[in-house]
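[Automated response] Your request has been received and processed.

Submitted sequence:
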Amino acid sequence: MASDSLTRRFAELTQASPARPRDALLRMLDVLLSGFFLLVSLPLTVPIAGLLLVTSGRPILYRGERVGRGGRVFEMLKFRTLKRGAEQRLGPYLGEELVRRTQAETTSVGAWLRKTQLDEVPQLLNVLKGDMSLVGPRPIRPRFFEELAADLPAYWQRLVVRPGLTGFAQIRRGYETSMAEKLAHDLEWIADRSVRLYLRTVTATAWRVVKQSAGGLVRRGD
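Generated structure:
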């Protein structure tokens, strides 16, 4: 990946869109809320880790490279939901083709984790570490970032903020939304990124996860 070009581009963007005082407050909220959510989720995450170990073995966690703030590449964490070696097999694909092929690679436990969005819980560790925020554009693979930035010049604006565990685009739209539409929502968040919008997005996401998790647990018990 041309990390040097990303770094230079980020320097240009920060001159045009400097950090705001509220960014420090949002970072403080990230630390406090992600720590709280990690504690609250322990009664679920420990059994999930055990279930994954028994049904599909190691590794329990998926670790994938993603582009972070300033173009820095970091290792994003998730509970593993795909068959072993799926990452290499899915590597060349993007968009609808990636979604279709991913469904075929998903394990039974993984399908449930994806449906309830509990596979994302380990990303709270990324938030605590500072690689991510609770709210922001969803992290993307380095290769795909460069491809999308070539087609959508405004895509570079995503480097101004940390990628998010959830985002403005995610609570407004589903996976079927085009990249251009998702980018429009992401840019709206980047331009605003107010505490009010942050808390609204976190609350909407938490409520959705609770509902989906409760529904998923009921269906697995039927």
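Summary generated for your ticket: The chain has a mean pLDDT of 83. The beta strands are 61-67, 73-79, 133-135, 164-166.
If you did not submit this request, please reply to this message.
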